[in-house]
Every structure is written in structure tokens, then in C-alpha cells.
Amino acid sequence: MALAIETKGLTKDYRSPLKEPGLWGGVKSLFDRKYKDTRAVDGVSFSIEEGELVGFLGANGAGKTTTLKMLSGLLTPTAGTATALGHVPWKREPSFQRTISLVMGQRSQLWWEIPAYETFKLNQAIYGLSDADFRRHLDELVELLELGEHLAVPVKKLSLGQRMRCELAAALLHRPRLLLLDEPTIGLDVVMQKNVREFIKAYNKRSGATIMLTSHNMTDVVELCKRVIVIEKGRLLYDGALDRLVERYADHKILRARFTTDVEPDDLKSLGSVVKYEDRTVTLEVPRAKMAASAAALLGSYPVADLNVEEVAIDDIVRRLFTHAA
Amino acid sequence: MNTYWVAYQIALQETLQRRSTLIMDRLGGFAVVVSLYAFWTALIGDKATFLGYTRGEMLTYVLALNVLRSFVFTGRGWQLVGEISSGKISSYLIRPLHYYGYALALDMAQKTVHVAASIVEVTLLALLVQGELFLPSDPATWLLFGAAVLLSSLIFFFLEFMISSLAFWTSESGGPLFCFELFLQFAAGAFFPLDVLPLALRRILEMTPFPYMVFFPVRIFLEKVPPAEALSLIGMQALWLAAVFTAAMMVWKRGVSSYSAEGG
Fold it and tell me: Does A121 touch chain B if contact means CB atoms closer than 8 Å?
């Protein structure tokens, strides 16, 4: 299979002016401005095959959006190389731009005062779609995203969820072969999040497009992505199957026990770390190797009514990865 | 080309959609014209000519200003500044599109609506002052005037585009744009004919593109310049346009690459 994206040592520094606090600091910075370089992305290398749907994870400020901006051609890297669909993105060649799309959950390309349909017409012209293709693509998107009556309403009158769906439609009208999604479900309610997720999955299947998405919503990632790339402070931390992330980073399991009488939670510390104790139920994090011994000790010395052992949830692992990183 | 035609049509709809903004804009412009009109009427008084202008010519100058303001001084500068500072510009930069062509299409749409409105306003005012206006009888004058106004508006567009592009480097580029617009109105002759100014100052201004944006086109309309001179003024406009366009594209390109370097 051909590669959709390949980056080698991709690096991006931002330069921002430093200002000392207060009025005097402001005056000083008028004459003697000092700058600070911040490395947002630091030597990141990965490759993605055509048709893959990859989750791109990291804490706030880890460098996810910066990477997506480089891959879409908005930013020029400080060092390193990248190719996307065989092009160097930041050359901004029209033949490249016609095959990609970048959707940022908090930014809009829609015209505010008039119905979304007009923005679609503009995109038809920009991407040079024939009337027949435009109709066909639009009908499909209207159906998948349940846009129907929303197309004729001025965008400013739409709810956030309706607007986000129109935003996706505007970004996909030209059938991009590479789709970069930055927080596509941000601000949406649970039902809408689910709809958008299903849509992304369907689009990936139907069109065979390569999709890279960032999200703080773990459900998005768990339901959509088999593979994840995790970055931390601009550096690649993990690249591989989502399942393996669990094995690698979850060195413990969860042991939950309900007692028939009250127990002093401090006494349980020797068995594992106590996460929670309420309603006579304790939740313990126990290292994998110690699990059998801890369970046996619990059953032998305490009035246990019920006991179970669970794997750590993926989102907990990722969250831990981030808090650990921060 | 099709892209820009569609953008024009959409922008036309949008301008009409924002009715209250449109009405406010028109009222503001109308107030300027009415006050200039009152001002000049008072100054001229009973005199036959004033600073080389007859009463009718001066009043025509003022009314022509209303049309010219609508056609020349309606750029997309503030929108560009806003889209750069908010980062919305990104959504254009990743599409196969020339932003300046797009902005020009939007600008033309806005001009269409404003010129139509200003013609209605001027007709109303002309009816009120009854017969005192100067209307050229030679069709060639109208043709020259039309060409001059088109060039003026393009000069303004690219000049404003260039200054607005400063927003790529500073978050406070509203300042330069505001100063530019104020100075422009004065230096272009949008408050008064530049003949009013001392000769030395006028000579200096004539070395800038500003008088070519309002003062000279109106003089062509008033047949204050012979056709041959009118043609050479239009030639100068074309040169200014080429210079301003080149400069604007340079600033824009550097701006975009700095935006790409600094982060969007």
C-alpha cells in the first residue's frame, strides 16, 4: 500500500515576544523586544498508509495541532521533512490542496449570515467540481449527516451541532483523500458526538480516505482508531495499535471488593494503592504480578461479599500518560 | 474565474442580508455629503466662483464624492485584519484560491450595492438643488471618468490590502489601517478639492497615489482638464496601480510566509 503521510524528524519552533509584567515592562518591550523560542514539535517521524484512520493523542500543547498544520501546509517546519499524498504540503500546490481537508472544531469556514448551501457552492467553484459531482457528493453528505432542512437556514441560526455537521460537509464536498480532523466533536452533545463518529467511520470506509484525528474525547479514539500516535511535549511517545498501548502502559489491574461490614481502608494499603473507598466497597490498583497474592489476602482476612478484577480502561491509560507527561 | 464570480454573488447576497449595517453605512456617508454640501454653500455665498469652482461645480464635486466614496473607499481591509488576527485566514490558505482575488470579488459585491444606493441618494439630492449641477455633455468625458474611477478603486483596494497585511506581523494592525484611512480621505480630496491647499503641499501630494483616487477623477468629470491631460492622468493611475499591486503582493507573500513560520 502507498503511503499517505510520511514525516522524518519534523520539528517546529515558535518564536513569541517576551514581555515583562506591568506598564514599565510594556514600555521596555517597545524598544528592546526579547523573544523566546518554544519547540512545539520535536523531531517527529511516522508514516501512515493510505486509507488508515489514525488517532493523534497528546495533552494540550503537546504539538498535535501544530503537526496537523504542517501536514496541511499551513505551517513551514523549522527542520525535518514531510510528504502528504506525495507532495510537500507547505509548497501549497493547488493539485495538493484539492485533495486534502483540515477541519478545526473551533474554526469555521462557513459564511455566517447566509445558508451553508452558499458556502458549498463556493467550494464547488474553488475545487472545480462539475455540477453532477457536486450534486452527487452533496446528496451523499446530506444523507449521512442528516443535513436536510439545515441547508437553507443562515448559518448563524444553526445550533453548534448542526453547524459542525455543515462544517464537515463543506470540508468533504471535494472528497479529500486526506482528512485532518482537529477535535471534530468538541462542544457537541453526546448524541451528536456519536453521529459525527459514525460519519467519520463511514466516510473512511466508503471513500478509502486517510484520516488523522485529534480528540480529547477518548470515546472518539477508542471507537474509531485501531492505531494511535501519542506525542508528549512535541516528541513521539508511542506509535502503534491502541490495544498494545494498554499492555505497555497498564502495569496494573483494578481490584474491586465489596465487604459485608465496614473496613478501615488504611489497612488495605499493603495490598495495592487505594483509589476509592465508599459504601463498603474498595477500589484498588494492584500491580499485575501481585494480583493473585492480593486477591487471596483480601479473601482470607476480610469479610468479602463480592470481588472482581478488571483491566484498566483505555481512556484511563491515556489520561495517565498525559498527566504523567505533564 | 468562476470561483470569483460565485464569491461575488454570495457576497452580494450577504451584503443585502446585513440590512441594518448597510443602512447605517449609507446614513453615515449621506451625513458627510449633506454637511459638506451645507459647508460649501455657506462658503460660496453669493460669489460666482470660489477657488476656481462655480457653485454648480462645487456642488457637483460634493455629490460626486458620495458616489466615489461608495465605489473607491469600500475595501476589505478590516475583514482581512480580522481574519488574520483570528486565524480564519488559515481556512483560505489551505484551499486552492488566491485570497486577493477572492477579497476583490467580495469588494466588488459591496461596491455594487453601495454605488446603487449612492446613485439613489445623489439623485434625490440633485432634485433638491435643482439644475445647478454640472453634468458633462461629452460622452468621452463619461468614458474617461469611468476608466479613472475603476483604476482609483483598484489602487485603493491594493493599497488597503497591503496595509491590512501588516496584521501578519502585529496584532495591532488596526492602528495603521485607521491612520491610513483618515489620511487618505484628506490627501485624496474626499473632504475638499485639493486646489484649496497651498501649492507646495499640493505638489507633494501629487507625487503620491492619493490625488489619483478622488481629486483627479472628479476633475476629469468636471472637464477641468483637457482630454489629452485626462489620458495622461489615467496613464499615471495605471502606473500607480501596477506599483501598488506589486508592493501589495510582496507584502502579502512575506506576510503569509511569516504566518507559516510563526504559527497560525
Answer: yes
B10, B95, B172, best to mutate vs chain A, most A CBs in 10 Å? B95
Kindly state whether residues A166 and A269 are assigned to the same domain: no
- pLDDT value at A226 more than 60: yes
Mean pLDDT score of chain B? 88
**Domain carrying residue A296:** 252-310
Distances (CA, A) of B88 to A10, A108, A112, B93, B133: 25, 7, 13, 9, 46
Number of domains in chain A: 2
- Which residues face A103 on adjacent strands? A181
Residue of B nearest to A72 (CA): B94
Lowest mean pLDDT among A27-36, A168-177, A270-279: A27-36
* pLDDT of A1 higher than 70: no
What is the distance in angstroms between the Cα of B260 and the nearest Cα belonging to chain A?
Answer: 4
What is the CA A6 to chain-centroid distance, rounded? 19
Q: If you measure CA to CA, which chain B residue comes closest to A98?
A: B96
Q: Which residues of B are less than 8 Å from A125 in CB distance?
A: 2-3, 5-7
Contact between B58 and B50 under an 8 Å Cβ cutoff? The reply is: yes
| CA distance linking residue B103 with residue A106, whole number of Å | 23
End-to-end CA gap in chain B:
28
Of B14, B17, B264, the CB nearest to A69: B264
- Same domain, yes or no, for A267 and A155? no
| pLDDT single digits (tens) B112-148 | 999 999 888 888 888 887 767 888 888 999 999 999 9
pLDDT in tens, A263-282: 888 888 888 888 889 889 99
A237 domain-assigned: yes
Residues of chain B positioned with their CB less than 8 A from the CB of A128 = 2
CB atoms within 10 A of CB A240: 13
Helix intervals (H) in A173-290: 190-207, 218-224, 242-249
Task: Please tell me which residue of chain B has the smallest CA distance to A37.
Answer: B262
User: Is residue A78 located within the same domain as residue A179?
Assistant: yes
Which residue of chain B comes nearest to A67, CA vs CA? B263
Please identify which residue in the block is written with the cell numbers 442528516: A146
ipTM of the complex: 0.83
CATH code: domain of residue A159: 3.40.50.300
Q: Is A61 on the interface with B (CB under 8 A)?
A: no
Under 8 Å between Cβ of B119 and B67: yes
